[in-house]
């Protein structure tokens, strides 16, 4: 299933670049929206897409209902993110590695995805949040990361959190 934000934007016949320019978004914002890396869509994002749909005669409510079984864009976006995570859950069967010099969370990222950016895209989580936790700037696991790892049924979540906290405390 396609990201509902992207689906509606494409139905308006706006390119990503034109949509960003028309509604005052950075190109990277559009990339993050459409790859699912925002935990939630902002009101500005939703209103802008609503305006584009109204302007181009796209019945967004009907598309969301028919194609996503959702009443709101936010609900459709969250459901899409969840579906995307479930498809890659099999990748999260690796146990965390304890390390002295490296972040255990960063090692998990490398084991699963090869890079932080790819990990963020796979799990549909904000990159800044992942970066801060992987670097040890954030001591406790952010809720958005914990929720995503829970959704993919990562079986070593408690151990990973404990190892990461120990690493932050002793580096």
Residues in helices, as a percent range: 55-70%
Helices and strands, in N-to-C order?
HHHHHHHHHHH
Report the strand count: 0
CATH architectural arrangement of the largest domain: Orthogonal Bundle
Q: What structural category characterises the helix and strand content?
A: mainly alpha
Percent in strands: under 5%
Low-confidence stretches are none
Tell me what the structure shows:
By secondary structure, this protein is mainly alpha-helical. The chain folds into two domains: about 5-85, 434 Repressor (Amino-terminal Domain) (Orthogonal Bundle); about 90-170, no CATH class. It has helices spanning about 5-10, 15-25, 25-35, 45-55, 60-70, 75-85, 105-110, 115-125, 125-135, 145-150, 155-170. Helix 1 (about 5-10) runs parallel beside helix 4 (about 45-55), helix 2 (about 15-25) crosses helix 3 (about 25-35) and helix 5 (about 60-70) packs parallel to helix 6 (about 75-85).
Characteristics of this structure?
171 residues, mainly alpha, 434 Repressor (Amino-terminal Domain), 2 domains, 11 helices
In brief:
Helices cover 65% and strands 0% of the residues. With 171 residues, the chain is mainly alpha-helical.
